[in-house]
Amino acid sequence: MAARRRSETMEENRGKLIAAGRKAFAAEGFAASSMDELTASVGLTRGALYHNFGDKKGLLAAVVAQVDGEMAARARASSAGAGDDWERLLAEGAAYIAMALDPEVRRIVLLDGPAFLGDPSHWPSQNACLQATKQVVGKLIAAGVMKSADIEAAARLLSGAALNAALWVAASDDPQSTLPKATHAFRLMAEGFLSEKC
Amino acid sequence: MAARRRSETMEENRGKLIAAGRKAFAAEGFAASSMDELTASVGLTRGALYHNFGDKKGLLAAVVAQVDGEMAARARASSAGAGDDWERLLAEGAAYIAMALDPEVRRIVLLDGPAFLGDPSHWPSQNACLQATKQVVGKLIAAGVMKSADIEAAARLLSGAALNAALWVAASDDPQSTLPKATHAFRLMAEGFLSEKC
DNA sequence: AAACTCACATACGCAACGTATGTCAAGTGA
DNA sequence: TCACTTGACATACGTTGCGTATGTGAGTTT
After folding, report:
1. Contacts of A184 (CB under 8 A, 6+ apart)
2. In chain C, which nucleotides are within 7 Å of a protein Cβ?
3. To 10 degrees, what angle do helices B6-28 and B56-79 make?
4. What does the alpha-carbon distance between residue A50 and residue A37 come to, in Å, rounded to a whole number?
5. Model's pTM, two decimal places?
6. Chain A partners of B134 at a C-beta cutoff of 8 Å?
7. Is B28 exposed, middle or buried (0-12, 13-18, 19+ CB in 10 A)?
8. How many angstroms separate the Cα of B53 from the Cα of each of A52, B15, B60, B66?
């Protein structure tokens, strides 16, 4: 058989472990996931895991970084069609709410991530979503569309409201009917930041 | 020595374990807290814990219920001096932000609680804080002070925004200087729910 | 006061993490 | 091509910590 390059199989194995991590962490949570089972499910042992990621939390960090990156991409995509920056901001908020309905996002990034890795603003992935929001908020405040306020505070409040509302939506009996209520309330509240409303 | 009643010592031991749980969970987090050490620290063994609380998560639930109750009391106290209901709502929001600065509240109720016990709205303590906010929001919407919106959605967004902002404040380098920025932004955003602003 | 209850201690099995060590294929230089 | 090195991963082991099954003695009942 063709002799495969080392770096090639290593990247492949890292990918396998991260993919298995996404599944296991989303399904059972970080604490309840067994690394023996997880590694065995992709034909490896714990040796591979500790060599590549250092420890169990290292794998979680890698998984979080990957999912976080995908979230930022989703947020960008959903706000791409917006006419102005304000509509872009609202679109990103709606995207946050929709993303938190994803079991992987909810369990891994919103629950286990903060609990086991600490505050998201200190993650290596830097919470890419929040950075995007901060940028838009900064532009809107500078342009006078939004009232003067601390940029990071406003971005935090907006994304925090959206994410927390989404956790509620996801845990509700009928997510599909509660989702519009959440997005409507979000739009109302965000408008509190608008400068001129008369 | 005077023979002590059984129910008396039992309540006392429950209290000791809950108090030890608050300390340990706040300091090291739920997952990293050893039940052997925790029970030994109050002169008991794990036997007492499993008899009283069923399992490790049972103790966490009891601790969360106690802290949650204290949070509700704090919120009530801080909004007691408010003139009207709207000011009461803002005061509660400010109280949320201040409470999340408490290490016990942050670690136990905001991080480990949701991660290990599931969504707060399904807790036996019913997330007493949120219930209080819902009541005020309901009155304000009925009175026409706030725009029409789903009561629970509005309450969730407001408390979620406050709590998430508070997590940021707590994790920041200089909490004392970022706190006013957060409360100011919160007030601005909450005003988005006001009916008449002209 | 004898029988009983139950709150808690003791002892055990098991699962899972992390580490120390072994191993063999991929790379390197002659 | 062949000895030699590297390193990615497997294997084996020690440790920790949870949950349970069983024991026990102080308190309670009759």
Report:
1. B149, B150, B153
2. 6-11, 15-20, 22, 25-27
3. 80
4. 14
5. 0.90
6. none
7. middle
8. 39, 12, 9, 14
Identify the residue whose tokens are 């809107």.
Answer: A140
How many A×B Cβ pairs under 8 Å? Answer: 156
| B117: amino acid identity, one letter | L
- A85 at the B interface (CB within 8 A)? no
> Nearest CA to the C1' of C5 belongs to which residue?
B6
Mean pLDDT value across chain A: 90
CA B157, B159, B162, B165 dihedral sign is negative
The amino acid at A132: A
Q: For residues A111 and B113, what is the distance between their CA atoms, to the nearest angstrom?
A: 9
Residue A126 in tokens: 């830097």
Going from the C-alpha of B139 to that of each of A116, A174, B196, the distances in angstroms are 39, 25, 16
Lowest mean pLDDT among A49-53, A161-165, B71-75, B114-118: A161-165
Distance in Å, alpha carbon of A117 to nearest chain B alpha carbon:
11
- Tell me: pLDDT of A183 over 50: yes
- For the ranges A92-106, A159-173, B69-83, B133-147, the maximum mean pLDDT occurs at B133-147
DSSP states along B81-112: T-SSHHHHHHHHHHHHHHHTTSHHIIIIIIII
- How many residues are given for chain A? 198
